[in-house]
Amino acid sequence: MRFLLRPGWLALVLAVLAFVVACYTFLAPWQFGREAEREAQQQAIDAASATPPAPIGTITPFGVTPDVEWRQAQVTGTYLPDDQGLVRLRVVDGRPAVEVLTPFRTTDGRLLTVARGTVETSSGSVTPEIAPPPAGEVTLTGRLRVDQTDPEGRVLDEAGFRQLYVADSRLLATATGLALEPGRLQLAAGEPGVLTPLPVLPPSGGAPFTNLSYALQWITFGIIALVALGYFIRLELLQRRGRPDRSALRRALSGEDDEAPLAR
After folding, report:
1. What contacts 24+ positions apart, CB below 8 Å, involve 10-16?
2. How does it sit in the bilayer (predicted)?
């Protein structure tokens, strides 16, 4: 087994062990965590769907917090289309799109952000034509959503719109000067001013058990790596046992073994 101390074998063993440690301490647990998060969000969606819509004032006095996310809320008021914002680089059914965020003033004076949905565009650099929301007082029903976060806080002013990279009412508030409450109201199909409705899906993952299958794959990869390492070590041992003794072969070729008895 001394061959394992050679640089090439040492590098192989260390690489395999590092990969296995990464699989079992980071990659698989990370996917298990994402699956647990997706499941918790799906349970929150299911619970919110089973709860009838209620006036937003009975759900939250100010802004959207994680404990009320996905709840169905009702508001009455008017859109403020002049302060509208777009979220760039969205993808809907494999096609580029923008998400439309429009401020909304309720009859009791609250300033909310309404996620009206998405509009398809020809490319991520093209701003499509946006249908205006209805004028006058309307009543909306939608799901409460917390803000997304852009670490760089980017806001552009292009094509007559304030353009963001995430759906963040705080960035829109800074860009417009409006005292918008944190979070947004995501409209469903059929609501006044809705465009292409956003799907009601957990944002942290895809289909159920997708992340779980990824986690099991990383565990399997770790096992395969160890088995492969053991196989290569065993193969090297078998090859070494099958090789002739080089010193004995050298003596036989030189005739030393035949001459030794005559010397006596």
Report:
1. 12/229, 12/232, 13/229, 16/225, 16/226, 16/228, 16/229
2. Multi-pass membrane protein
Tell me which amino acid residue 213 is. Answer: S
Do 251 and 258 contact (CB within 8 A), yes or no?
Answer: no
Structure tokens belonging to residue 175: 């860009």
- Sign of the dihedral defined by the CA atoms of residues 148, 150, 153, 158, in that order: negative
E strand residue ranges, the chain: 54-55, 72-79, 85-92, 95-106, 111-120, 138-145, 155-158, 161-164, 184-187
Rounded to a whole number, what is the largest CA-CA distance in the chain? 122
DSSP string, 80-130: -GGG-EEEEEEEETTEEEEEEEEEEEETTS-EEEEEEEEEE-SSTT-PPP-
In sequence order, the 6+-apart residues with CB closer than 8 A to the CB of 237 are 1
In this prediction the pTM is 0.69
Residue range 210-232, pLDDT digits in tens: 778 888 899 999 999 999 999 88
Q: Can you say how many angstroms the Cα of residue 242 is from the centroid of all Cα atoms in its chain? A: 52
What whole-number distance in Å separates Cα of residue 235 and Cα of residue 27?
30
pLDDT at position 200, please? 82
What is the three-class DSSP state of 77?
Answer: strand
The whole-angstrom separation of Cα 174 and Cα 185 is 18
pLDDT at residue 50 in the model: 86
